[in-house]
UniProtKB/TrEMBL annotation:
InterPro entries: Aldolase_TIM, DapA, DapA-like, Schiff_base-form_aldolases_AS. Its EC number is 4.3.3.7. Pyruvate binds at T45, I204. GO terms for biological process: diaminopimelate biosynthetic process; lysine biosynthetic process via diaminopimelate. GO terms for cellular component: cytosol. It is found in: Cytoplasm. The keyword Cytoplasm applies. This is 4-hydroxy-tetrahydrodipicolinate synthase. The gene is dapA. Homotetramer; dimer of dimers. It comes from the Bacteria. The record marks T44, Y107 as: Part of a proton relay during catalysis. The keyword Cytoplasm applies.
Length: 294
């Protein structure tokens, strides 16, 4: 099973808003060269809500083809329509993704029973291992711990990405799944170090977009139980953990990658490029993390 630092990869775009396929290849190579442990294609940070269905398919396929099995590829296949999530998951399986990451359905606010039946239907419709994704700050629906425990009994549901940032809640899950094959990943960079040290298996990370080597090293230290080294690395990354959320993700991450010379400034409406008042904040965070030379 995958573990460590998994990047929630941005989808690079040109200034006119088209997917920049050459830049996507560069980003993938950047992560392969810097020890990223897995790549999420078309997850939340990849702007799937503004990609066409064909583009969403193509991003997943392109990442799989470029990675060539060197590290796991996790396809973002979440949708608020169960039928659409099934279609995306089946496609990801067809083109060779290793896992899918499926966010709780947004906007329509299903009940806990609805969440259970949604994920059960996806699991029964595809052979791809499923990572549940709870991110109530984006979807306006919270998957309760009791529902996670119930879903863990469903064949092919193998892990949870918990983006709540609630470590007390995470500890309950870690204790509940200790000694089982079900895995727990942080989806909140600011608390990921402590999440892993208490027993989580990794972090599906926004920060890893711009500091992949450092995030890999932090996760590896935490997984090894080296609390001192993990916190030492994480301290340098804290300004990025917070700075990359001064505006809605992936606005700051895309701007940071633009500053690093890896992508253009392209982003799709209703998202806009980073506000000028935050650009110094991002620049200084990149410097502190050792990503940019002072």
């Amino acid at each position: 099973m995958i573990k460590g630092s998994m990047v929630a990869l941005v989808t690079p775009m040109t200034l006119t808003g088209e997917v920049d396929w050459e830049a996507l290849d560069r980003l993938i190579d950047f992560h392969l060269d810097n020890a990223t442990d897995g790549i999420v294609a078309a997850g939340t940070t990849g702007e799937p809500s503004t990609l066409s269905f064909a583009e969403h398919f193509d991003v997943i396929r392109r990442v799989v083809e470029r990675v060539k099995g060197r590290i796991p590829v996790i396809a973002g296949t979440g949708a608020n329509a169960t039928t659409e999530a099934i279609e995306l998951t089946r496609y990801a399986s067809k083109v060779g993704a290793d896992y899918c990451l499926s966010a709780t359905p947004y906007y329509n606010k299903p009940t806990q029973e609805g969440l259970y039946l949604h994920y059960k239907a996806i699991a029964e419709a595809s052979d791809l291992p499923i990572i549940l994704y709870n991110v109530p700050g984006r979807t306006a629906v919270d998957m309760h711990n009791e529902t996670v425990l119930r879903l863990a009994e469903v064949d092919k549901i193998v892990a949870l990405k918990d983006a709540t940032g609630d470590l007390e809640r995470a500890k309950f899950l870690v204790d509940s799944f200790r000694g089982t094959d079900f895995k727990l990943f942080s989806g909140d960079d600011a608390t990921a170090c402590d999440f892993i040290l208490m027993g989580g298996q990794g972090d599906i990370s926004v920060t890893a977009n711009v500091a992949p080597r450092q995030m890999h090293d932090m996760c590896a230290a935490a997984l090894a139980g080296d609390e001192s080294l993990a916190h030492q690395i994480n301290t340098r990354l804290l300004p990025l953990h917070t700075g990359l959320f001064v505006e809605s993700n992936p606005i700051p991450a895309k701007w940071a990658l633009y500053e690093m010379g890896l992508i253009e400034r392209g982003i799709r409406l209703p998202l806009t490029p980073l506000s000028e008042k935050y650009r110094t904040t991002i620049h200084e965070a990149l410097e502190m993390a050792g990503v940019l030379n002072k």
